[in-house]
Automatic annotation (TrEMBL):
GO molecular function, one term: nucleotidyltransferase activity
PANTHER family: FAD SYNTHASE (PTHR43793)
Residue span, Cytidyltransferase-like domain: 10-136
Keywords carried by this UniProt record: Nucleotidyltransferase, Transferase
Protein name per its UniProtKB record: Glycerol-3-phosphate cytidylyltransferase
Top-level lineage group: Bacteria
Record InterPro entries: Archaeal_FAD_synthase, Cyt_trans-like, Rossmann-like_a/b/a_fold
Length: 140
């Protein structure tokens, strides 16, 4: 196996209705780091941000994500304050979908993380699949 570039990687998600896009992101992230820590968005944070609760509750979503071989540790993501968490975890890489690249929010994260020795890595999104697409199919 090739040596991984980063020591501790971190990524987050709701992981509602777990699908191949979720798996692809986790695999691509793990391919680049020794230890992959995954934050699973709490039900309350999901409601606060999207005004809806996930279909699968946070305990079950955390259990699903923790069972995936690419994931070394799962933690709840209860807020959007990422810099303190990056520092606390000692993460040197944060993985996020490429759909966020170039946004004002993630440009600022890039600057903030760089100050503590952490790099933002943008991973390609899997086309044609998302929890929203699945939810829409259920409602038809």
């Amino acid at each position: 196996m090739a040596e991984r570039k980063y020591k501790i990687g971190y990524t987050t998600g709701v992981y509602d209705m777990f699908h191949i896009g979720h798996l692809n992101i986790l695999k691509r992230a793990k391919d680049q780091c020794e230890t992959l820590i995954v934050g699973v968005t709490t039900d309350e944070l999901c409601y606060k941000r999207k005004r809806k609760y996930p279909i699968i509750n946070e305990q079950e979503r955390m259990a699903i994500v923790s069972a995936i071989r690419y994931v070394d540790k799962v933690i709840p993501q209860a807020d959007m304050e990422k810099i303190n968490l990056v520092k606390a975890l000692g993460a040197d890489a944060v993985f996020v979908g490429s759909d966020w690249k170039g946004t004002d929010v993630w440009k600022q994260y890039e600057k903030d993380f760089a100050k503590v020795g952490c790099t933002v890595i943008y991973l390609d999104h899997t086309d044609g699949i998302s929890s929203s697409i699945l939810r829409d199919k259920l409602n038809k």
